[in-house]
Write a structure and sequence with these properties.
mainly alpha, 13 helices, globular
Length: about 300
């Protein structure tokens, strides 16, 4: 269902008509949730079940965390939430890549393994709602949040990360674009240089990994093709963690380092997967800064990674 289609215009008119009708507030929330699920499932209906599972699991997990009588019980519930969320994310988003690297690693050891090709389709926005949901259970676990008794309200909160967050355009923010760009470049250079000087990694691998700026699918694939599966997996994992740790830590790090700091930490991912977390937790006015910085670093990574691998 595309935004410029007649179907969407009719769908939007019906949803807005019901929302602004004299219905009870609970009925309006139900209307918004059903409409959000319909809109999300228009591309591939079965994937809405994954979203519903994640929502229900973490709503229950948060209530169990809050009601646990012992710290061990809280830890177990939190661990279950982390395992469920990262398990879903890992399977859908990284399963095929990890399997390919596992097969390559076995080949290095002399094991000839040919598994069936996994036909995995990536659900739209899975990174967004996974970490939106996980940040909620983490907030309850840390006692920063009280669990909501309403599953309806929580389901709408999760959908907020997919279909309805604000993005403010700020020209003033763009004047500070050099700050996250300089910080991201300096961090990558210092980190890669330190690893190379200490002899922990070959220079070209260290710098290629650092200059990926969080673009793990590009960096992992290029390093693997150039230097083998082991280094490719390392490059993939390093940049993968950059993206996902930005999401996980944004509720606490965002208010401390601000929009510029979180944009620098996010690197190339600030234009897409981590954009919501930067504007939601760090600075609502940082949207234009994050988009521009992510775009510049994405272009830079696509040029710098192959150049470094070929030059050093």
């Amino acid at each position: 269902m595309t935004f410029n289609s007649i179907t969407f215009l009719l769908f939007f008119a019906v949803v807005m008509g019901l929302h602004y009708s004299p219905l009870p507030w609970t009925a309006k929330k139900i209307n918004l949730l059903i409409a959000s699920y319909i809109f999300y499932s228009a591309w591939n209906p079965p994937f809405v079940l994954v979203l519903m599972f994640s929502t229900l699991f973490d709503w229950v997990a948060a209530r169990l965390i809050n009601g646990a009588q012992t710290q061990r019980g809280r830890n177990l519930c939190m661990a279950a939430s982390v395992a469920a969320n990262l398990g879903l994310l890992g399977f859908f988003k990284y399963g095929a890549f990890l399997l390919a690297n596992f097969v390559s690693a076995l080949a290095v050891l002399g094991v000839d393994f040919h598994p069936a090709h996994p036909d995995i389709v990536l659900p739209i926005g899975i990174s967004f709602y996974t970490f939106q949901s996980l940040s909620y259970t983490l907030g309850v676990y840390r006692r920063d949040l009280e669990p909501t008794p309403s599953l309806l309200d929580y389901a709408l909160y999760v959908m907020l990360a997919l279909v309805a967050f604000d993005l403010n355009w700020s020209r003033a923010g763009l004047r500070r674009l050099w700050v996250p760009l300089a910080a991201a470049a300096a961090g990558a250079s210092i980190g890669a240089g330190s690893l190379a000087l200490l002899g922990l990694l070959p220079a070209r691998i260290a710098f290629a990994t650092g200059f990926g700026f969080g673009w793990y699918t590009l960096t992992g694939a290029l390093v693997a093709a150039n230097a083998g599966a082991a280094f490719g997996f390392l490059a993939f994992l390093t940049n993968f963690l950059r993206e996902n740790l930005t999401m996980v830590t944004s509720p606490w790090a965002g208010p401390v380092v601000g929009g510029e700091g979180m944009t620098a930490v996010a690197g190339a991912t600030s234009m897409d997967t981590t954009l919501y977390f930067i504007t939601h937790f760090a600075d609502p006015e940082a949207g234009s800064l994050a988009l521009a910085s992510g775009l510049v670093l994405t272009i830079t990574a696509s040029i710098a990674v192959p150049l470094v691998l070929g030059a050093l």
